[in-house]
Amino acid sequence: MAALKTSAASSPGDVALRVSGLRKSYDGKEVVAGIDFTVPPGTCFGLLGPNGAGKTTTLRCCLGLTTPDAGEIRLGGLPIPAQAEVARQRVGVVPQFDNLDPDFTAGENLMVYGRYFGLQDATIGARIPDLLDFAGLAGKEKARIQTLSGGMKRRLTLARALINDPDIVFLDEPTTGLDPQARHLIWERLKRLTARGKTLILTTHFMDEAERLCDRLAVLDHGALVTEGAPRELIGAQIEPQVVEIFGDEAPAWAKARRELGQRLEVAGDTAFFYCRDALPLLAALADAPGLRYVHRAANLEDVFLKLTGRELRD
User: Model's pTM, two decimal places?
Assistant: First the structure.
């Protein structure tokens, strides 16, 4: 498919995005505090963190929409912000909130957006059917935006981000507000993009999304980079392999009296989290406590995230 061809713009030795010593402050408060990371081409890189961690400011700096106070950014090999306008010609962006034009049909939204990149109407028109098919919207070219479901609008926004056949795609919380079916469809489409050599830079609050999609990820908190690595590497390095969650009004007191049954205990509300290398002694004790409900599972990326950034609510 012409609109979704395998990217050949970057050689194996290139990097899609390099960030070094990035800093940005607002009103005397440093919101990005000297972070460094590199994104190889053809990979999915996740930028995770609680609200206020500095993710959005970092993305805006990388796209040349916000000028950093210090540091160096190279996007597609070009210095940012000095050559941001040129670099953005090879970049697609899926914003956190859909901003499709309600006065246009699905196809017209793609046509108008393609013109912003200086593409000829004939070129855009040839790409539209493939992009709509890729987004699971075949036959919707003449559909009005008001008639599309939330999932359809999100997939159309993804298709629009690909109209210029970008090498690099920034996705800001691409599945927020979607039902499980729509989320899984978008995940499958994003995997197709990396298989074709596209580079994805993703922010998300869904840890299962990051674990499924990201080759590597960085966790930010209070503007600083807390850790970076492949999801499974981070889980193995940061968290005991087994987790037992115990629920109920009596769970916190019961767990605190038996904290020696796990390597680590965390309590949040009426839930106790035991992190264990061997969960059998704990499970045996729970068998004698029929009033408690529990879940025994493998450690996951959400456990890493909460260990590194805390369980307190962020606004």
Answer: 0.90
